[in-house]
């Protein structure tokens, strides 16, 4: 039997996505892998003997538990070859089906979706309780990580073997964790349970599917290893954080219908609340957030491993060709379940590939070099509707201080190599980087909030919230279409930006969006125009796309031409479904450097806080005694691997103009601003 890895060797990670009944696909792959390991090391070896960390979300959390929870002999409860038998036997009972062609069944399903979860979850609850009994997470046979989301606290809750050993209140029953991580919104009921801490005090959990936070938990697993290394608790004490060359990572997806092009902007622009949660038996909002989350993690990790010259240490296996019933997370008929088994077997025959960020399909992707020795200065701005006034206030404050040093004409675009923004952050990014007729930024940072003050009440028009008729109209409007028609925002952006394209910005920008037809993130950047003419879109179209928040504003459709004159279409919604905080995209868009002795030394200190540096224009040196920015924000100028994160709070768009002014004034008077010590601010 394999005895596990020893000090000085590779750290091994297995990650399994969420995806309902499509867990059969990774189940097939894992059965194959374990059988090959058994050919080498004997029939009794199991996957838990080979992986240092196994992470799983939702259905992936169930699979993780099956192959790591101990049986009475202290060996894994399930061999990998038995995973699919478990799904084939139990999925029809967890997700009972009625005739999809029966009119009464369709009506019942629709009203059931509106009034409660599609399935009652009773069978799944009794099954997990029966199988797992009183086994807690600290008893797993290797380290596991299972994410969930607490809807009461509005924050992810990550359960892990290590936490279970160190924190009694996190040492929950595996059955409760499984029920929590698999409680997919609209499909299964949320799960509540309690634990006790070391002093006997009760801790409560109100959990739903971990997929809303990390449908692909690979990055979470790698981050957990790095955290353990920093704390001196990881088994390989001689490893460094994020030392990718000593990690082997296998990430398994559950399939996606990218090529089926299930949704389009033309359809989604007319959707209200109901259509976003129910469309011909599908749940678009769940599909989109799940795919967006999984894809962004793949993008992040692929870039990380490529930039550190060890791309072969990371393998992502995913099938993006699912169609019809095979793409469903709950259509648990015998025929469809067997089809998923076949898809898994077919996937084993396909060649190794990596995702192409332009097409969303899997093929080889080559990296590029970075100028040696240059440090990247990155600004990143979250999405959050009218909450964009918060970073607007901070950026206005920052720019005025820079003007005190370098003159009234300097702008933020003169200082940052990359500025990234999502949704409202994309609008702010465009305002401070799009050129005016003098080829200077269209807006000074001090004017951002004036823009919001003037235009937000017209973009999000409000009526009396206490008027009964208004409430009824609002309810039916939310069901039948987006809350706001977006006409004013569309005319405003077209008027301000005209024919300016993204290749004209005054510094490199990155603005994420999500294509609902291809079910994949689309990242627009200034650099892309050098390689892909079809990505050189109008800034007005990009802004309308990245800000098209589901249920609030209509989806955005537009077209561009490639170098051969062929049309490329985009069916775009809010980039926040893929990267509401776009700072990781900033690092990814900075190509990998050629490895030099100096850079190797730099990599060795990446785990340490960056030294305090002054923010300066790249063309000018300044004496340290004149530097204001280190006192303001020591991490604002950063080496590769660190970035700025102006955290936004999401503010409900129900402010009238006077209320917005009061809100802004309270921020300006906030005592934290004159003494700001970190770029990451929560107000």
UniProtKB/TrEMBL annotation:
Where along the chain is composition biased (Basic and acidic residues)? 613-624
Name the SUPFAM superfamilies for this protein. FabD/lysophospholipase-like (SSF52151)
Stated name of the protein: Patatin
Q: Which PROSITE patterns match?
A: PNPLA
Active site, UniProt feature: 58, 209, 423, 574
The yes or no answer to whether the keyword Lyase is present is: no
Q: What class of enzyme is it?
A: hydrolase
